[in-house]
Design brief:
mainly alpha
Length: 270
């Protein structure tokens, strides 16, 4: 059963035209989500309601600096969400699933004047998601537990922004293209681009290889712009297999699209 909206009155205030009311509502939401027992009781519908309010909070936010600050604050919510010992993902993954579901649903309705701030929001949340996932790889509680966050995160990426079946009604082309545009930038910020064969970068290389496999599925998409953008991102010279000229060169050969030109939509520039 969904949480009674009377217990979350701040949701409608997130979309207020008054900046002070929106800011106060966001502070209340942060405190609300910090409580482990409260967050665990939220349903999928509750998280969707939260993100609908947050979506319109961004919608109502004007001027570049406040927009940048708000996007950073929303991404930072991941750092305050509870990670209970019995299930570290029980709150974070549903929260992120609702984020991607909301952005996918609303993406085509975002006008050109507002698109830039939503591109930034996706970048910030995607980067924060990867940071949350790799944090477990530094855990001293054993490799099995350390992989839990990464496993769930990759499954979520395959379910939503880089959805595997190519269902463009579920995840629009523009959103897919943007994620393909930014993923290498975000792993670079997290210092995951170690050299192939570097023993000190073993965990990072494993994480990066798994992310590579998620992106590689998009390189086989029936949608030409998505297919080409995925191949371009996989050929990025910052990626270790491209720098090292390793056996992954055969993957680069597979990236040739049988003579197809790049006449598809080029996506958004960040």
């Amino acid at each position: 059963m969904a949480t009674d909206e009377r217990n979350m009155p701040f949701i409608k205030h997130l979309a207020s035209s008054d900046r002070k009311i929106r800011t106060s509502a966001l502070d209340t939401l942060r405190k609300f989500l910090t409580a482990p027992t409260t967050a665990r009781k939220l349903t999928e519908l509750d998280y969707l309601k939260l993100w609908k309010g947050l979506f319109y909070s961004v919608w109502m936010c004007d001027r570049p600096i406040p927009q940048q600050n708000l996007c950073a604050e929303l991404a930072d919510l991941l750092t305050v969400l509870p990670t209970p010992n019995d299930d570290e993902c029980v709150v974070v993954i549903p929260f992120l699933r609702a984020f991607w579901a909301t952005l996918s649903r609303e993406w085509t309705a975002i006008d050109v004047l507002r698109m830039e701030k939503y591109l930034l929001l996706v970048r910030r949340v995607f980067g924060a998601s990867l940071a949350w996932a790799i944090d477990s790889t530094k855990s001293k509680k054993g490799q099995k537990r350390a992989d839990i966050r990464a496993d769930r995160m990759f499954r979520l990426l395959e379910e939503w922004p880089l959805e595997k079946t190519g269902d463009l009604a579920k995840v629009p082309v523009g959103l897919r293209l943007h994620v393909l545009d930014i993923w290498v930038d975000e792993v670079e910020k997290l210092e995951l681009l170690g050299d192939v064969g570097d023993e000190n970068s073993a965990d990072s290389n494993d994480f990066l290889s798994r992310l590579h496999r998620v992106v590689e599925v998009q390189s086989k998409s029936t949608c030409k712009p998505v297919r080409e953008r995925a191949k371009e991102s996989l050929a990025d010279e910052r990626l270790p297999w491209n720098k090292a000229g390793s056996s992954d060169e055969e993957m680069a050969e597979d990236d040739q699209d049988n003579g197809d030109g790049q006449d598809g939509w080029g996506g958004f520039d960040d």
